[in-house]
Amino acid sequence: MSNITNGQLVPAATAAAADGPEWVSEPTAYDAILLAGFGGPEGQDDVIPFLRNVTRGRGIPEERLEEVAHHYRHFGGVSPINQHNRELKVALEEELARREIDLPVLWGNRNWDPYLSDVVRDAADQGYTKLIAIATSAYSSYSSCRQYREDFAMALDDTGLAETVQIDKVRQFFDHPGFVQPFIDGVRDALLAARAANDGLDLGSEVQVLFSTHSIPSSDAAKSGPASRGFDDDGAYAAQHRAVAEVVMAAASAALELDSSTTVPWQLVFQSRSGPPSMPWLEPDINDAIHALKGGPTRAVVIVPLGFVSDHMEVMWDLDNEALESCDEEGFWATRTPTPGIDPVYVTGLVDLVLERRDGVPAVDRPHLTDLGPWYDVCRPGCCENVRLGFKPAVSGLIP
């Protein structure tokens, strides 16, 4: 990938971002938006090839892939994630048209068709050489941010377009109001439903709100976010989730006009662990957390998929299947709140994030709901290292 740097501090960046400012304050005339998804199989024959793509280079045995394949085969071998991104693309296009913003939306995946390399090549063929990317992940970690940036770099290298196409990326949007508001609405509605379904329910003691996100290796968590921010051993990844959960609970409680002495119990939990037992991952697992509530005052459980932007496979299987089964086993009334999906507030927020970069909006004028934000436009050096793989070329951040 010798051509990816072009002698810049930030590889393949537009002029406004090339020197690596924390927040870009110079307007940039982008040609198109690149919506970057994870990708997923769309039929039974796609499942194993897709899982091989996802786990390439990790030495995962075929028998383990078959275990995971069972989740997809349960739904006919079709992951909902591609359809969700098709719908999000259309929603973004409609919002851009409503606001009379002339920016086409391109969609590419990391692990399945349409692949990012093909989309970048098609973009260049159409004369789109300045792209602003939206990755469908809100938080900071290797898998949710840096790996996307590495895949952008790989796409430029694979296509030979590293000196032609520039790719910037919107900031991580974990605390942007457009992302957070759907969760506030979901928790508010779920608490109302819990109270209606459980006579005499005490929201201050008999409900447990579980904010769930994808577990990651502890070593990756520790490296998430820039070291200069001084996060604890769980890094920016866990800190961002906890900060957003606090905002959601405060806003939902205010919407319900709860007495100031009533604090609804909540905790951050994790799901979808895939590593060997010998490797520490973030805990507690959501099912363990549910079973641990047995024998206490809990009567109702509200599950909030805080780490996810849409109802993809790990929401449908790990939460709607396994976690709700665990609640049923313990006799808890339970519900799972919606993900942002194509909620108009979320879609509007994504367009606002693009306009921040197009217009060079100063950091002081950027909306954020926690003290951790607004997050950086250009990732800091060494941010979100994968300890096992080391640093690979990546765009939208300072080297390495």
Task: Explain what you see.
The chain has 400 residues and is α/β, with parallel strands linked by helices. The chain has 2 domains: 32-40 and 79-172 and 343-365, Rossmann fold (3-Layer(aba) Sandwich), CATH 3.40.50.1400; 177-336, Rossmann fold, CATH 3.40.50.1400. It is 39% helix and 11% strand. It contains 11 helices and 8 strands. The longest helix has 21 residues, at 177-197. The relative contact order is 0.19.
What string gives the helices and strands in order?
EHHHEHEHEHEHHEHEHEH
Helix-strand makeup class: alpha/beta
Number of strands: 8
Largest sheet: 4 strands, parallel
Oligomer: single chain
How many structurally independent domains?
A: 2
Corresponding CATH architecture of the largest domain: 3-Layer(aba) Sandwich
Low-confidence stretches: none
Question: Which properties best describe this structure?
Answer:
400 residues, Rossmann fold, 8 strands
TL;DR?
By secondary structure, this protein is of the alpha/beta class. It is 39% helix and 11% strand.
Strand-helix topology:
Layout: E1 32-37, H1 47-55, H2 62-74, H3 81-98, E2 105-109, H4 116-125, E3 130-135, H5 142-159, E4 166-169, H6 177-197, E5 207-214, H7 218-223, H8 235-255, E6 266-271, H9 286-292, E7 300-304, H10 313-329, E8 333-336, H11 344-359
Parallel strand pairs: 1-2, 1-3, 3-4, 5-6, 5-7, 7-8
